[in-house]
Design a protein that fits this description.
39% helix, 315 residues, alpha/beta, single chain, five-stranded parallel beta sheet, 12 strands, binds zinc ion, three-stranded parallel beta sheet
Length: 315
């Protein structure tokens, strides 16, 4: 997409700014590179923000609002991968950034029984003055059938969320597990399979939003089950087939669970050909007297503080 293609389309100013904002990481890279090439902090590694992985069962009134309150009391600033990336390129990263991501939302017509829970979670986050990243499964498989038909009303809502600063990440088309037992690539997955999971999903999201006049670029892939990153191998890496498919999109961040928490060189962010692999932690779960696992706000916040403190030690 070029600036020309944006300006020649009927859009509100807000749409225009959003469209530009979502893509500036790529549009202005040469300028940013020039700036950083003389900046004194060039050699300083960039700390990966503490990042929490949530699912719809974590959308509990006795957990999420308390967690958000705690994170605010701790002085965290909620960012998205996109907004944080932009702040890295501009050399203006918030002092205590944190990324909340919520997996498994779908806008397919016949899927996502937990949709109202996802909406409730978003409203709590918004009310706290924070933001989050939603991992979208574009064509979830139910009874071996991919649910392709999209719910246009839900997509209208997604447009509004993006305009409010929430990020939509691809969580693939079908939510397949990419891993063999050693966390390496599955032997039965072909390039066409990776294209179907990643490129197709990204394209559907961008196309559906562009039909609404919102020129949005998907920059983040959230890996299903944290698979797709061979963390148990001697040289951990994103599966090559996944990386190749990502290079057919504008994806910059590949989000898993294991690893991905140590600082990365600034050049990794600046180089448009490099993917950034980042990990997350799940909430802390405690077992209640009935034997049920319930998320605990205090312990989860403590884990996120530890991650932030480790950043300070490493930075
Ligand atoms: Zn998932």
């Amino acid at each position: 997409m070029t600036l020309r293609s944006i300006t020649h389309t009927k859009m509100s100013r807000r749409h225009f700014l959003k469209g530009v904002g979502a893509t500036t990481g790529y549009m202005f890279l040469p300028l940013d590179f020039g700036r950083f090439s003389v900046a004194p902090q060039k050699a300083t590694p960039i700390a990966i923000p503490p990042s929490l992985m949530l699912h719809s069962p974590d959308g509990r009134a006795d957990f999420l609002p308390y967690l958000l309150e705690q994170l605010q009391a701790d002085g965290f600033t909620a960012v998205t991968y996109q907004s944080w990336y932009q702040s890295v390129l501009e050399g203006q990263v918030p002092a205590k950034p944190i990324i909340l991501s919520i997996d498994d939302i779908s806008l397919a017509r016949s899927a996502c029984a937990a949709f109202t829970t996802f909406v409730q979670m978003k409203e709590w986050i918004k009310a706290a003055g924070m933001t989050a990243v939603y991992g979208v499964i574009t064509e979830p498989v139910i009874g071996e059938q991919p649910q392709r038909e999209q719910d246009e009303t839900r997509w209208d809502l997604m447009q509004a969320w993006v305009e409010e600063g929430f990020e939509l990440a691809s969580h693939t088309s079908y939510h397949s597990n990419f891993n063999a037992v050693d966390t390496g690539p599955r032997p039965d997955f072909t390039a066409a399979d990776y294209e179907a999971e990643i490129v197709r999903s990204t394209h559907l999201m961008e196309t559906t939003l562009s039909e609404r006049g919102l020129f949005y670029t998907v920059q983040t892939l959230i890996l299903p089950y944290g698979s797709g990153y061979a963390y148990q191998r001697p040289e951990p890496q994103i599966h090559p087939g996944i990386a190749a498919a990502c290079r057919h999109t504008k994806i910059k961040f590949v989000v898993g669970i294991a690893h991905g928490r140590v600082p990365q060189p600034l050049t990794t962010f600046i180089n448009p050909n490099e993917l950034v692999y980042v990990g997350r932690i799940p909430p802390a779960y405690l077992t209640d007297p009935n034997g049920q696992q319930i998320p605990d706000a205090g312990q989860t916040a403590a884990w996120l503080r530890t991650w932030h403190n480790n950043n300070q030690n490493e930075g």
